[in-house]
Amino acid sequence: MFSLHERLQADSLPVSDLGLCRVLLMNNRVWPWLILVPRRAGAVEIHRLSAADQTALMAEIAAASRVVERLFAPDKLNVGALGNMVPQLHVHVIGRTRGDPAWPGPVWGSGHAESYTAEEGAALAARLAQALAEDADSLRRSETA
What we know:
Blueprint: H1 6-11, E1 12-17, E2 21-26, E3 33-38, H2 51-72, E4 76-80, E5 91-96, H3 118-144
Antiparallel strand pairs: 1-2, 2-3, 3-5, 4-5
Helix pairs in contact: 2-3
């Protein structure tokens, strides 16, 4: 049975569930930052997922990337599955801009963090959920056209 690692739960806000992944918003307003967590018990590494889940994960990473790009217009997207602190498989999709406080270095360990207010976080999570749903609808329409 899938359960979210306590650190991911403590550091993020829920956005939505896709076909495979739970989508979370990192509670750090410095960067637009989504986390995708495959809802598979015991998942630790991408290559250990079934072939179908690997394909679904890549499609969902692409969807999250499109949404971050469309809503925030970053200069670069950073996508990574590190797992050094949290062993549960999760993938970060982070919008970076040349003027951000950690540029060009990594966001991890940069010392830059600022939580969303409850209202701000809820509103952004809802906006992201809507954008992910619109992206999925757009893909379905293009596939049937």
